[in-house]
Amino acid sequence: MLKIRYYRLRMSPEYGIASLACSAYKLGPESGISVLEFNSGNLVLRCTFTKQIETTQILSDGSEVRSQIPTMERHSVRFFQVSAGLMLSLMDPPRGSRVSTEVLSKLIGKDEYFIEPLEIDIKMIRGHISSFDSARLVSAKIRDFRVYDNAIGRLEISSKEGLSEEIAPFLAGKYHKVDSLTYEVTHQFKRGLICYVNSGTVRVSGPLVETAFPTFEQQF
Q: Parallel, antiparallel, or unpaired for β 201-204 and 113-117?
């Protein structure tokens, strides 16, 4: 499945797509950042980072030799403009926001922006799945529901036959949070899965990739 994480990005008024592209061109490929695509509303960067991984080798006498091996990470970072403001997306992201913040720090400085994960709510999800021929909820991860006094639960519920929009009867009228929802989607004779994670990540299986991500971004 292809995974993309989305962020809302706030910067000083003088910054925008064009100024970000200008900074990337000035830095040059030697900085690890190169421009793949640029127009007035869209900027795609290829970002390469080198980091050190510590390894331990155990010798025949039982002693340990520690060393560091350089490894390379490569990520695709996209900036794009929507009616609600400037967005950033990261393809196949690692955990955390390290890559995004490193790229932004190189482009505009450490104190010139504010970034937050996109909150994917049920309204956004329903708007998106309505653009497909059919969709049914097949898996949900929930948390923070009351099990009994002083105990809360975390649970994943799934069914190949599909779940109701209420997810489970024991949640009716009770406080809970949704971590993720996964739908089986059929569109123009293609079938796949779309998973929405409330912290801003969308995962899509191969046949639907070209359709799902552009239509999801129309919900912003």
A: unpaired
